[in-house]
Here is the input.
Amino acid sequence: MRIGEESETIEFKLTTGEKKEAIESIAAILNKHCKGTVFFGIDDSGFVKGQQIADSTKKDLSRAIYESIEPRVTPSIEVQTIENKQILSKRCLISR
Here is the structure.
């Protein structure tokens, strides 16, 4: 299933192993738009691939985002199941 396309406020990452690239994308999105979402478990074409998501995965990713971006942002985490595949979305917002 294809869920859409990347845009200036939406970024797709295949796995949470792309954490460093995701943080760079989040910082760029927030610098320009003050809000955005990074999805994990989605390929660059927008197709759901899924990945295993443990509680520790969510905590580690949230901590890395919080510690890497200034001003501090607290990402909102959502795990979704699409076609029996789990994906993770991180929504971030800076209030000015």
